[in-house]
Amino acid sequence: MNETYSESELQSLPFMNSNLDLEKRVEDLLSRLTLAEKFKLSSGRLMWHTKPIKRLGVKSFTMYDGPHGVRPDTMGEKKSTYFPSAICRAATWDSKLSFEFGKAIAEEVREVGAHMLLAPGINIQRTPMNGRTFEYQTEDPFLNKILAVATVKGIQSQNIAACVKHYVCNNQEINRLTSSSEVSERALQEIYLPAFKATVQEADAWSFMTCYNKVNGIFGSENYNLLKERLIDKWGFRGFTVSDWNATAFTSTEGCVKAGLSLEMPTAKIYSKKNMTKAFDEGKFTLNQINENIRRLLRVMFLVGLFDDQNKLPKGSRNTPEHQELARTIAEDGIVLLKNDNDLLPLNINKVNKLAVIGPNANFRVQGGDILSGGGSSINFPPYEITPLEGLRHKCKNNVEILEDPSKADITVIFAGLNHNHGMDAEGEDKENFRLPLEQIKLIKETVQKNPNTIVVLISGSPIEMDDWIEQIPSVVKAWYGGMEAGAAIANVLFGDVNPSGKLTITFPRKLSDSPAHASKRSYPGNEKVFYDEGIFVGYRHFDSKNIDPLFPFGYGLSYTTFTYNNLTIDKEVMREDDTIKISVDITNSGKIMGKEVVQLYVRDIDSSVERPLKELKGFLKISLESGQTETVVFELNKNELSFYNPRENSWVVEKGIFKILIGSSSRDIRLEGAFEYLE
Ligand code: BGC
């Protein structure tokens, strides 16, 4: 113990041998660390790094934000690809794109010399008012799971660690540092945990970030039940946990060590040498417990190649044309066409003479380089960002005149929406308003008086109220925050070079009080406690069961073509416990142009002993079809997809009886129905 080594001696130590089994390397290094060195490794330095142990050649492990582009420094000296925000990526409903995104962003992480990306953020979108809705994927646990698994696999395919965050029930920003999410076991199991669990069991996630908030009275970083009992023991997580930055503020040293928190970030507080030594000397935690926490961190250090020849690791790359093209593809495929009366869209470049382009988001760069904006920790610094106006100018050059006066134009496009400033789509606080800023509503209403051919393009990362103006506007497009290529993607969709295929991953309510979290003050924003009174009835599960008409339902999005659904077949009338049931359906592009459709499969349990949602998403596939082309889509279900969490028995159960299969183009546009019987 505590020996010093020459460089050649170090190289000959077993843990430096990359041919040795991973666990043997971990144990060898762990056995050489002194207790003081283990304490040192338990907390960070300089915001983004662990402390090196020079004696043993343990370098700093480096982790950077964020979910939409790597940000190696806070001043933006090193630029990186700015990808569309997570809600836009999710709206593509394309798991391949999530994988490709993960892979590409990990290449950028590698290129800047880091080892872990602080992403993906996969908290459920419980309320449209959450300031970080744009950073999360969806209100639905099944979709969340598929996309999270693909993203983690993509990131880790480059030997870069994903850090799945924020575990768990950090579903609002208001009071996030102090409040307790009071949530039932059933809602945890059915809604909030599935995607987290799947990233462990299906994608071997190497790291989890704890939440700031308490869950049922206990802070995430010292929550023994969430970390040790579920994540580590039940799910079989082999990675390490890291606190959200300063999320340990109100926790205890021993509480966190025992719960299984490996790393306190960004600097030592409860894990300071003094606090660790005192708690250990007083017998408040054991050597085994600290060993286990450090073992996990070391394991990931080996997995990312911290001790290996850097030339043998996957190569990094940053700001490549491939990454930029991927950013554009995600933006294009995530854009959701919400309304399109009389086929005003797509615009015909040969027929439009004058196009008015107005509105506060028309020439606005989302990542303006303003360090206070950018939405908080997901800010990044791209080498360029194409604004909507720039994208349209480029598209229209020599063909269409772009002007600012709607009364002089054939068509007007208003770029309305929000930005990442405080009180909007930003971290640390929730949105101040559900509606658009009043001056924008006024602009929309006045503009359509001057020019009936007005299109509203919404740049924002969350649902907003539209009841006040949408009736008067023929076409509405949700373009989210589309990353550095957003302007090009929007122009491609408006002019029909790209047929829109994005679908909403969150219900757009008509008014906020329709939204399940907003039933009372105790359910939102709460105070010391936020009561998840709606239980499992989050998102469309609530709108369906209460029969509330949303403005736009979950899974909704229009196309410039049409699709017909035919020939639903279910391969069994009766399903038994170990069976897999095959469901197939023919989808035909019945319109005139090529397009992509997201075919959605929902399940309804007809004879349940407990209250269940009227439908639950259990399958989806995005397919691309030429005009006139038909494809057969096949889904497979097993009993897991039929089960619910029964709190009385503390387990997942399937009850015998009839299950309905609903196949549709959105959660409220079910085209075909079938049924089968489940017998135990
Ligand atoms: C955020 C995390 C982020 C961390 C580091 C926190 O405030 O909640 O998502 O990764 O800061 O910037």
Please describe the topology of this protein.
Elements: H1 7-11, H2 22-32, H3 35-41, E1 44-45, E2 49-50, E3 63-64, H4 86-91, H5 95-111, E4 116-117, H6 141-156, E5 161-167, E6 180-182, H7 185-192, H8 194-201, E7 207-210, E8 214-215, E9 218-219, H9 224-234, E10 240-242, H10 253-259, H11 273-281, H12 287-303, H13 321-334, E11 336-340, E12 354-358, H14 388-396, E13 401-403, E14 411-417, H15 438-450, E15 454-459, E16 475-478, H16 486-494, E17 529-531, H17 540-545, E18 563-570, E19 574-576, E20 581-589, E21 595-605, E22 616-625, E23 630-637, E24 644-646, E25 651-653, E26 657-666, E27 669-679
Parallel strand pairs: 3-4, 4-5, 5-7, 6-8, 6-17, 7-10, 12-13, 12-14, 14-15, 15-16, 19-27
Antiparallel strand pairs: 1-2, 8-9, 11-16, 18-20, 20-23, 21-22, 21-26, 24-25, 26-27
Helix pairs in contact: 2-12, 3-12, 5-6, 5-13, 6-8, 9-10, 13-16, 14-16
Task: Note down, in words, how this protein is organized.
- The protein is α/β, with parallel strands linked by helices and 680 residues long.
- The chain is globular and about 80 Å long.
- The N and C termini lie far apart (59 Å).
- Bound molecules: beta-D-glucopyranose.
Q: How is the biggest beta sheet arranged?
A: 6 strands, mixed
Bound molecule types: beta-D-glucopyranose
Shape: globular
Identify low-pLDDT runs.
Answer: none
What is the count of DSSP helices, taking H or I runs of 4+ residues? Answer: 17
Structural Rg? 26 Å
Mean of all residue-level pLDDT scores: 97
**Number of DSSP-assigned strands:** 27
Query: In what order do the strands lie side by side in the largest sheet?
Result: 11-16-15-14-12-13
Separation of the first and last Cα atoms: 59 Å
